[in-house]
Structures are given as C-alpha cells and as structure tokens.
Amino acid sequence: MLNKLFIALLFFYFHVNAQELLSFQVNTGDYDRIDCPIAIKIQLDNHKWQAKNFQLVEVGEFSKKSIPFQFDENDTNKLWFILHGFTPKHTIRNFVIIHESTKENIQQIDLIKKDGALQLIKNNNPILNYHYKIVVPPKGVDEKYKKSGFIHPLWSPNGEILTRIQPSDHYHHYGIWGPWTKTHINNRQVDFWNLAKGQGTVLFKSFKNEIQGNIYSGFTALQEYIDFGASSENRVALNEDLQIKVWNLNSSKKNWLIDYTTKIKSPLKSGILFDAYRYGGGIGFRATEKWNKDNTSVLTSENKDRSTADGSRGKWVIVEGASETPEGKSGILFMSHPKNRQFPEPMRVWPEDMNKGRGDLFFEFCPIRHVEWLIESQKEYRLKYRLLVYEGELKSDQAEIYWQGFANPPEIKINN
Questions:
Q1: Among 13, 143, 192, 227, which is disulfide-ready with 237 (CB 3.0 to 4.6 Å)?
Q2: 80: left (phi over 0), alpha (psi -120 to 50) or beta
Q3: Same domain, yes or no: 147 and 209
Q4: Alpha helices in 106-154 (DSSP H)
Q5: Rounded to the nearest 10 degrees, how much is the dihedral formed by the CA atoms of 149, 152, 157, 160?
Q6: pLDDT (tens digit per residue) in 293-350
C-alpha cells in the first residue's frame, strides 16, 4: 500500500498532467538477475489504451527513469522490456505506465540484407549473419554440400568470428544450425545432416517476418526439410519456423543475448521418426578454426568439462576459446529451456583428440541423443535456446543467473 502511495505521489510531482494507466512490481524471487528480458500482459482493448502513446517509467526511492519497451509482434497485449543491470534476489522494483509520449532516441539493432544474408548489427558492430541464399561449397567439392538456412558468422561483441562453415573435415558443417540426422519415413532412412549421402537437405524457403524494435530485433524464417528419396519427386518432409531474436540490452556490459527457437511440423501423413543418435536437431555449433584442444574450455551446469561432457545432460554449457580481442578470450553460453524435450538436455561435445588430435570444437544440444522422437503428422513441436555471447571469462554462478532469467523470469504483480 505504501509503495503504491509513494508511486502516486512521485508522479504527481513530476507529471502533473500525465495519466497513470498501470502500476506494477517486478519481484526477482529466489534468483539474482542480470539484464533480464521480461514481459507484462496488458489489456489494450480497454478504451484508455487506445492512443498507444505511452511511457514505461521505473520509480526508484528518489528518482524516475523512462524505460524502453516493445509490443510483441504476435500478441499486442504483451509488452517487453529489459530489467537492466544486476538485481539481487528477493528485490522488488516498481514501474508505472503513463499516458505520455516518449522522446527517447533508442539505438535499435538493425537488419540489413546483403550478399544473400540477413545481418543483425548494433552501432556498426555485426552480431550475426543468417544465410537465406544458397552457399556453394569450395571449388572441386561435391555440389551436394551446397546449403542455405544457417548462421555464420556469429561475431563476439568485439568482432571475433566464432563460427566456421564448410571445414575440409566436415563440409556439411554450417556455423550454427540444427538438421536432424538419422530419421525414418515409412521405414526408409533419410539423413538431413550428412549432405554427401544425397538423402535430404534443409533449405531456406521464405521470411515470415522481420522485426526491428527498441527491445529486440530479429526474424522468423521458414526452412524446408527436403526428402530426395520420395518415390515420385522431392518432397517436403518437415517445415521449420526458425525464430531469431537479438535482445537490445543497452547495458554497460557489451554482450549479445540471442534467442534461437525452432518450431517443427511434418506435413506427411505418416509423420517422421527421429532415431536416437549422438547428432541431430537441437542447436549445433562448429567453432572457429582458431579453437583447438589447447586454447578452449567447456563447462556444463553439472560441472562436466570437455573430457566428460559428451553424452551428459545439462541446463547450460559454457564454451570459451582464445580470441584476438583485448580480453584474449571470447565465449558463448548455450542455454536450454526447461520445456525442451529430454530436459536437462543431452549434448554432443567432440573429444579433445578429434580431427587427428587437433581437437577442433563442436558442441550440440541433442534432444534425441538417448531416446527416439516420433513427430506426428501436422503436430507442432518446439525447442527454445538462448545464447549469451561475451568477451573474457564467464563463471558458473554467472551462467546460472542468466539461465534462471531464461527459464524462470521474475514475477510481475499488477497493483490494484
């Protein structure tokens, strides 16, 4: 009651003419928080919201601060914002939405199409490229390896390229991607991963949306799993909506926070069976050629390292390696959502003697590692991942904070 009274008094002092539309509290609960994206549901059908001319303001003990926000592209009653900075557990932060125009000039994350790729870029710093046009293999390499629908490069915040495509040891590796490997359609095997087999592939079809806003920018791409071995002609065995969101943290700490969500549905009457196998689906990452067994490290939420992580399960995985940035090291925290299949999710991590002892790095969250998965006809399935891309080192307690923000976001209480 005192909090609500304080908020009302403060806004009467600062905004005599502003109409308060809603006040609410964010409770961090049992977990510390760092730069955490959260959403609040509001009812825009109410007449007082019709103008959509709002400000979101955080109210401190003796201060107020306008906060950037963005309406969800699929739900106009959902408003996204970032709980900026570090907030300890069991902390309450107060917010008010007022009917007043905002004059803030937010530096958004831009989307630029160039050379067959959609690039997301912030302040002239590239974040990632998504390739929607076919990339052909190197000269002299089988044309079967050509592909679209993958992320490369993924850059670190200070510009280090962290991904690799078409390495000579595995020409079918494409940066960040996730095709299914051993599958069966009506008792016939179809491999969408190992392109040299000529059984299938995954290609970009179209963009379903492209979004640029104050809180996140991104896109949803329709990707088709094409079965080359159908009796009459090539056919689509699986449709995938790949949604990429890059959160605009505007934080003092320069990190990229990226959501990678895949929704799959089979148009086949028989559906499709994903066999249990150590590769397939989820999210795969082939690291830069600079990384090897001598300059990389892996740490999972279950305290497994590179020598013990393969085949284990985890909520999150830290992958770090040497870079030419001032910090001398760059990394990615891969996070799996609790609603994902087989969570805590199984993983594939290449052993340190991979590729003739060089120890190149490959990581994948692999929900079919231990158990097969039947994809029923016309039924939608979803996998959600989040990536924190950073410079320097990330400790396990910090990784846990970011994961909790993804898996268990803070609670919101609307004041009556």
A1: 227
A2: beta
A3: yes
A4: none
A5: 170
A6: 999 999 999 999 999 999 999 999 999 999 999 999 999 999 999 999 999 999 999 9
User: Which residue from 49, 40, 102, 99 is spatially nearest to 71, judged by alpha carbons?
Assistant: 40
Structure tokens that stand for 19 in this block: 């109409």
Q: 75-94: buried (b, 16+ CB within 10 Å) or exposed (e) per residue?
A: eeeebbbbbbeebeeeeebb
pTM, to two decimals: 0.95
What integer pLDDT is reported at residue 13 of this predicted model? 46
Contact 164, 157 (CB under 8 A): no
Whole-number Å distance between alpha carbons of 90 and 43: 28
Q: Quick one: 77 and 133 in the same domain?
A: no
The answer to whether the beta carbons of residues 218 and 243 sit under 8 Å apart is yes
Question: Are 244 and 262 within 8 A, CB to CB?
Answer: no
> What are 201's two structure tokens?
């592939």
Q: Supply the CATH number for residue 245's domain.
A: 2.70.98
Contact at 8 Å (CB) between 184 and 273?
yes
Contacts with 411 (C-beta within 8 Å, 6 or more apart), sequence order: 26, 27, 29
The verdict on residue 416 lying in a domain is no
What is d(CA 123, CA 403) in angstroms, rounded to the nearest whole number? 26
Q: Which of 179, 146, 156, 170 is CA-nearest to residue 350? A: 170
- End-to-end alpha-carbon separation of the chain, Å? 10
Per-residue confidence (pLDDT) for residue 14, from 0 to 100: 45
- Structural domain for 48, as ranges: 2-105
CA 58 to mean position of chain CA atoms:
27
CATH number at residue 43: 2.60.40
Mean pLDDT along residues 148-153: 98
Who has greater pLDDT, 229 or 296?
A: 296
Calpha distance 404→55 (Å, rounded): 28
Report the C-alpha gap between 71 and 59 in whole angstroms: 21
